[in-house]
Write a structure and sequence with these properties.
It is a single chain. With about 325 residues, the chain is an alpha/beta fold. The chain folds into 2 domains: about 80 residues, no CATH class; about 200 residues, 3-Layer(aba) Sandwich (Rossmann fold), CATH 3.40.50.300. It contains 13 helices and 7 strands. Strands 4-5-6-3-7 form a 5-stranded parallel β-sheet, sandwiched between helices. Strands 1-2 form a two-stranded antiparallel ribbon. A hairpin with a 2-residue loop joins strand 1 and strand 2. Helix 2 packs antiparallel against helix 3, helix 6 runs parallel beside helix 7 and helix 10 packs parallel to helix 12. It starts with a helix and ends with a helix.
Length: about 325
């Protein structure tokens, strides 16, 4: 299994490193505030003294000590926030800064894996796709209509609107999409936009190219009993909230019928479970029908919103401008 104990240990070490970095940043900021705002340090000392005195009284049987201390500490905390604001800092300046505030960079919420840990496990399984560098460059914030004119511009504005609506309503509406059209017309870019937006919202997203997908399917058909078989990679294809298959039609397989049947099983099970799927392809409908089983193709047509991408090769235009 690609996602082995060693890989999981590496992931958790990353969380520990981020927590340590957050703690170091917090210490540095506190030293800065103590140096610039002496009254803040005094308030911290008062809170510490109040807490210690309350603990001592509780041990001696004062059952109201903790409640009284809580009220006093709350008042002192508000004074601290006011001091920060008065000196030009946000009142959250000394709060820990986490990459994931939901789990506080522990990877877990209670005993359950946090969405960020689930995504990191997916990334470990599919690390060959190297998705994150692409998502940093290709997302809704970097999308531009400058490469489209005339009818193609109006069509792309409509496609962009559909993609944004898909993200906005992802939690409420089950939907699949098939992007098809010429090479470089924006299919992969908008797939990346969707992936980035949903990962940022806490959803687990599997982004995989067709060659990588069919390698996994080939392994499942012919090598599932071998030590190299990656069961986790196959399993996640069924269970992830969003599966993005990029460049369907670029894969090479010596067993097209059997592997296409596996593709249908994945699409069918995801449909039953209402897990959304986005597929992009440079192939036409006729080519898709020729390359895949009639049953798989019918499933695509019947359960997917089909969106044609027209226009020039954007990647070629960018290279010419650079």
């Amino acid at each position: 299994m690609t996602y082995s104990k060693a890989v999981f240990h590496e992931i958790m070490q990353g969380y520990e490193k981020r927590r340590n970095e957050a703690a170091r940043l917090q210490r540095n900021r506190k030293a800065e505030i103590y140096d610039k705002i002496s009254a803040y340090r005094l308030l911290d000392h008062q809170i510490a003294d109040l807490s210690a005195a309350a603990a001592e009284r509780s041990i001696l049987g004062d059952t109201l000590a903790a409640s009284k201390a809580k009220s006093g500490i709350s008042a002192l905390t508000e004074q601290k926030k006011a001091l920060l604001i008065q000196n030009g800092y946000p009142d959250t300046y000394l709060d820990p800064v986490y990459n994931c505030p939901d789990c506080k960079d522990t990877g877990y919420i209670g005993t359950e894996k946090c969405h960020c840990l689930k995504q990191r496990i997916i990334d470990a399984v599919y690390r060959r796709s190297n998705i994150y560098p692409k998502l940093n460059e290709e997302n809704f914030n970097t999308f531009s209509f400058d490469y489209f004119t005339g009818t193609a511009l109006e069509e792309m504005k409509q496609i962009y609107k559909i993609c944004r609506h898909f993200v906005d309503e992802f939690a409420n509406i089950y939907k699949n999409m098939l992007f098809y059209g010429e090479v470089g017309s924006g299919k992969t870019f908008l797939s990346n936009c969707i992936a980035k937006a949903l990962i940022d919202q806490g959803y687990s997203v599997v982004y995989i190219t067709a060659p990588e997908l069919f390698n996994i399917l080939n392994d499942h058909v012919f090598r599932r009993n071998t030590s190299s078989y990656d069961e986790e990679a196959y399993h996640i294809l069924f269970t992830s909230p969003l599966l993005i298959i990029d460049d369907l039609g670029t894969e090479v397989t010596n067993s097209a019928t059997m592997v296409s049947s596996e593709l249908f099983e994945i699409l069918n099970e995801r449909d039953i479970a209402h897990h959304s799927t986005i597929i992009s392809s440079n192939l036409s409908f006729d080519q898709l029908k020729d390359n895949y089983s009639e049953r798989s193709f019918s499933r695509l047509l019947g359960n997917y919103e089909t969106i044609r991408f027209n226009g020039n090769d954007i990647r070629l235009m960018k290279r010419r401008q650079s």
